[in-house]
């Protein structure tokens, strides 16, 4: 799953991207409000971490423009001030949650994970599909209670399908949510990963609907 980090402080941005990557996300970074607005307006992100104090275009303005354009991805705002008025302004602009700097990185990751789950109509981190269990908080996958070893990319693919379990997900949607903006997106790579997951989960877990995409179901 993809997250956009809009933060002008280079060191903090690097820490955010690294922490999100460790939690199974792929993150794009924008260093100012104009770039952040452009990326959020043109790329399909599962969530956004948005600093309010940005150069060129402030975060609240970025968020208002996204919402006015119908961009409804979950947004967590960051503010360096503890004043209630800035938090209220961010929430009124359309934010879903907020954190005040400084903050603990595990808390930010947990909040992003929760926002993504709620956006898909799920309140718990564990997604159970018969014999298959996907723990989106702990990044653990088990089949019949036994751990399934996955690469980072395999886990991102499976967790996205698990959040959309029972629904058909197109190849285009999967590639847009699995890879960073500047990654060379090759549909053949996606097919290879699906083949690997089928070998690890059983042939019946991921269905192919010709011309439509893939669907995750409970393994037989």
UniProtKB/TrEMBL annotation:
Q: Which residues carry this modification: 4-aspartylphosphate?
A: 51
DNA-binding region location: 124-218
Q: Which residues form the Response regulatory domain?
A: 2-116
**For the OmpR/PhoB-type domain, which residue ranges apply?**
124-218
InterPro entries recorded for this chain? CheY-like_superfamily, OmpR/PhoB-type_DNA-bd, Sig_transdc_resp-reg_receiver, WalR-like, WH-like_DNA-bd_sf
SUPFAM superfamilies according to UniProt: CheY-like (SSF52172)
Under the heading Pfam families, the entry gives: Response_reg, Trans_reg_C
Q: Which UniProt keywords apply?
A: DNA-binding, Phosphoprotein
What is this protein identified as? Response regulator transcription factor
């Amino acid at each position: 799953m993809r997250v956009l980090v809009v933060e002008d402080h280079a060191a903090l941005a690097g820490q955010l991207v690294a922490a999100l990557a460790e939690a199974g996300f792929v993150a794009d970074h924008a260093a100012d409000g104009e770039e952040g607005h452009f990326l959020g307006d043109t790329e399909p992100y599962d969530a956004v971490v948005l600093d309010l104090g940005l150069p060129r275009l402030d975060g609240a303005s970025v968020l208002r423009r996204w919402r006015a354009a119908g961009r409804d991805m979950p947004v967590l705002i960051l503010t360096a001030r503890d004043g209630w008025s800035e938090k209220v302004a961010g929430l009124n602009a359309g934010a879903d949650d907020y954190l005040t700097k400084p903050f603990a990185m595990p808390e930010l990751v947990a909040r992003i994970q929760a926002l993504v789950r709620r956006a898909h109509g799920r309140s718990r981190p564990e997604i159970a599909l018969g014999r298959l269990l996907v723990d989106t908080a702990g990044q653990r996958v088990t089949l019949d209670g036994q751990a399934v070893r996955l690469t980072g990319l395999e886990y991102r693919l499976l967790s996205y399908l698990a959040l959309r379990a029972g629904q058909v997900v197109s190849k285009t949607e999967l590639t847009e949510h699995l890879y960073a903006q500047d990654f060379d997106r090759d549909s053949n790579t996606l097919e290879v990963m699906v083949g690997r997951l089928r070998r690890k989960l059983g042939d019946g877990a991921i269905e192919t609907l010709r011309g439509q995409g893939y669907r995750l179901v409970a393994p037989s």
